[in-house]
Amino acid sequence: MLSKRVIPCLDVRNGRLTKGIKFEGNVDIGDPVETAKKYYEEGADEIVFYDITASHEARGIFLDVVEKVASQIFIPFSVGGGINTVDDMRDVLLAGAEKVSVNSGAVKNPDIISEGAARFGAQCVVLGMDVKRVDVSDEIPSGFEIVIHGGRKYMGLDAVEWAKTGEALGAGEICLNSIDADGVKTGYDIELTRIISEAVTIPVIASGGAGSPQHMVEAVTKGRASAALIASIVHYGDYTIPQLKQYMKDEGVQIRSIW
């Protein structure tokens, strides 16, 4: 059995760490470089970095911030936001990331997944999925729809089908974010996490809603996720990463070593 991962997420806007609820009301909460270093030193398994307004503002990612974060951590580092071409992916990898997360850009141009996987390897390509619950319909039979541009644009694309397509095109991993649960701290969307995890064979990272270590346990057991993404519960000091890992271990979850 593979160990489950604990992955802090840094949402960055204008070069600063930010956090909102359901993709709205974002507030400045600190320096992403200092925060990434802290989480690395506490024993995070990976770090995820999102430039959350790059796609909506139709600009490239803040590579200088990526470079600064990469210089401070020595664990896998995934970066997303405003990545629309293979050259964008290359720039992020050269700035120090190990993985590139494609989200809005992949929905608009799915070939970026296969082209990126062919050039850099599937292990470098993460399919980011922002998902909203909607009414079940012929178009959205799962009741989960893909939304892009930071939760602003509904695409009429079923999340389960898009996950399968992403895997077929060569994505090595999926980072699955529930917009409905984001920042609310009442738990991950376990139903969404489970159906996506069961629909594909690549690892799925559960994202959106963690408010307690028990929520993380549920994501990797009931939801069958390979990893739990966290933000608010560590950003605001509710828990430290060692505390979260110890709880998961005590609950019988196989995790990577606690520092």
TrEMBL record:
Might you name a Gene Ontology BP term for this protein?
Answer: L-histidine biosynthetic process
Quaternary structure (record):
Heterodimer of HisH and HisF.
Cell compartment(s), UniProt: Cytoplasm
- Lyase recorded as keyword: yes
Q: What is its main location?
A: cytoplasm
Give the protein's function: IGPS catalyzes the conversion of PRFAR and glutamine to IGP, AICAR and glutamate. The HisF subunit catalyzes the cyclization activity that produces IGP and AICAR from PRFAR using the ammonia provided by the HisH subunit.
Pfam families noted in UniProt: His_biosynth
Q: Where is the active site?
A: D11, D130
Protein name per its UniProtKB record:
Imidazole glycerol phosphate synthase subunit HisF
From which source organism is this entry? Pseudodesulfovibrio piezophilus (strain DSM 21447 / JCM 15486 / C1TLV30)
Q: Which UniProt keywords apply?
A: Amino-acid biosynthesis, Cytoplasm, Histidine biosynthesis, Isomerase, Lyase
Q: What is its EC number?
A: 4.3.2.10
Gene for this protein?
Answer: hisF
Pathway, per UniProt? Amino-acid biosynthesis; L-histidine biosynthesis; L-histidine from 5-phospho-alpha-D-ribose 1-diphosphate: step 5/9
Family that this chain belongs to? Belongs to the HisA/HisF family.
Gene3D superfamilies recorded: Aldolase class I
Under SUPFAM superfamilies, the record lists: Ribulose-phoshate binding barrel
Which InterPro entries does the record cross-reference, listed alphabetically? Aldolase_TIM, His_biosynth, HisF, IGPS_HisA/HisF, RibuloseP-bd_barrel
One cellular component (GO) term of this entry: cytoplasm
In the record, what terms sit under GO molecular function?
imidazoleglycerol-phosphate synthase activity; isomerase activity; lyase activity
Q: Which reaction does it catalyse?
A: 5-[(5-phospho-1-deoxy-D-ribulos-1-ylimino)methylamino]-1-(5-phospho-beta-D-ribosyl)imidazole-4-carboxamide + L-glutamine = D-erythro-1-(imidazol-4-yl)glycerol 3-phosphate + 5-amino-1-(5-phospho-beta-D-ribosyl)imidazole-4-carboxamide + L-glutamate + H(+)
